[in-house]
Amino acid sequence: MANEKLWGGRFKEATDRRVEEFTASIRYDMRLLRHDIEGSIAHAKMLGKQGIISNEESEKIVAGLISIREDIEKGDLRFSVSLEDVHMAVESALIERIGEAGGKLHTARSRNDQIALDIRLYLREEAATILQLLAKLNETLLKRAKEEIDTLLPGCTHLQKAQPVLLAHYLLAYREMFHRDSLRMRSCYEGINVMPLGSAALAGTSIPIDRGYVARLLNFPRISKNSMDAVADRDFAAEFLFDTALIMMHLSRFCEDLIIWSTDQFGFIEMADSFTTGSSIMPQKKNPDVAELIRGKSGRVYGNLVSLLTLMKGLPMTYNRDLQEDKEPVFDSVDTVRSCLEIFEGLIGSTVFKKDKMMQDAKTGYAAATDIAEYLVTQGVPFRKAHAIVGRLVGYCIEKDKNFDELSLEEVKMFYEGAKTEIFKYFDVERSVAGKTVSGGTARQAILERIKEIEKEREVS
């Protein structure tokens, strides 16, 4: 026979070698091997249970699949590119090992629903791992927040000093972001956790299979409701890539802050030697390369999302070979996000915060200006007028090269005639922070309340 492919009965000519190489996905989809075998074992058991194949054949297939998995794990089995993909590789090896019974494994299924199953099994596992890494990072951020509950620094907008805040408040702000990432990934997990096997090529099958039984064996709580949608759907993968892109965006923003804070100009932090590198020519350098690489890797994860969305946007119903291109973006994002989460947790856990420098900078830049304006509001001054008064006061300080705490009462009265000695306590940045007791504010009291809420939520979950 000219074509010995498992699907080659209709063809008279052998596949061109260049076509084999061009169309093969086996170079990268072998990552799905364990999941492909897991799904095949469940399918074989169901075929035996339903009497579609004999129990002896079912047991023979299962044993053969297990032996293939063991040989691959030991490195004793390699597959040729001519086998196209992981599904054909496993099936070919199975037929070679157990004979004709191996050819019955593909009864009532297609590679279309088989790959949909494999990638769902894979992403279900990877989503759970990412959730664990996010949980570990959030634990570290909570720990660091508790340690820095009294550390004060200048909060910024537009990268300009704005108002003083507690470092714990800053750290918990990122914890809120990563917590939302966890919520999104949990929701994504639910969307992934749907069993598509039994949809066959696109229309289902006339063979009396038991999809619910397979779903139970594979721990799927639900089965897909439409066979055409099941083989065409990659929404779950796109949602996963979107969620990982947001995780990377949050990591990148955090890294940007740390990179800036590590400069001599800021001097707010000292990254551990174990998470930095040196220069090949400048002996004095200590570079934040880990943070910079995380920041840089966000771009490739964004690109993976765009790649999949672009892939999907023009596909007619149902399965098309274009979908072979869905795997590499997914695999790359999984690898990138996992490594970034793991190494960033170590980076932030080992970073030293320079409390004195942060406090020193918080006291400059007129960071208490808003508090003074709010004080004037309590004295009956309309906010817009109070804003203008304090703005002129800041301008005077800049002109005279003075900080707020260097002003005399007479100088303050030049801008607000009703000024009394008590106004000076509103120039103090520590008092500024302590006054933000509103829920979600930066006061120590408000932060401790939030920490209690987090710990209670953790106990419930």
CATH superfamily of the largest domain: Fumarase/aspartase (Central domain)
What is the SS-derived class?
mainly alpha
Instruction: List the secondary-structure elements in sequence, H or E.
Output: HHHHHHEEHEHEHHEHHEHHHHHH
Which regions contain 5 or more consecutive residues with pLDDT less than 50?
none
* Percentage of residues in DSSP E strands: under 5%
**Total beta strand runs:** 6
- Outline type: elongated
Largest beta sheet: strand ordering: 1-2
Q: Report how far apart the termini are.
A: 60 Å
Which architecture of the largest domain does the CATH hierarchy give at level 2? Up-down Bundle
The percent range for helix content is: 55-70%
How many structural domains? 3
Helix segment tally: 18
CATH class of the largest domain: Mainly Alpha
Structural account:
The chain has 18 helices and 6 strands. By secondary structure, the protein is mainly alpha-helical. It has helices at residues 17-23, 26-29, 33-49, 55-73, 86-98, 111-147, 167-192, 211-217, 227-232, 235-261, 289-312, 327-350, 355-362, 369-378, 383-400, 409-413, 429-434, 444-460, and strands at 152-157, 160-166, 194-195, 222-223, 269-270, 352-353. The mean pLDDT is 94. The protein folds into 3 domains: 11-107, Orthogonal Bundle (Fumarase C, Chain B, domain 1), CATH 1.10.275.10; 120-150 and 164-201 and 225-360, Fumarase/aspartase (Central domain) (Fumarase C, Chain A, domain 2); 364-460, Ribonucleotide Reductase Protein R1, domain 1 (Orthogonal Bundle), CATH 1.10.40.30.
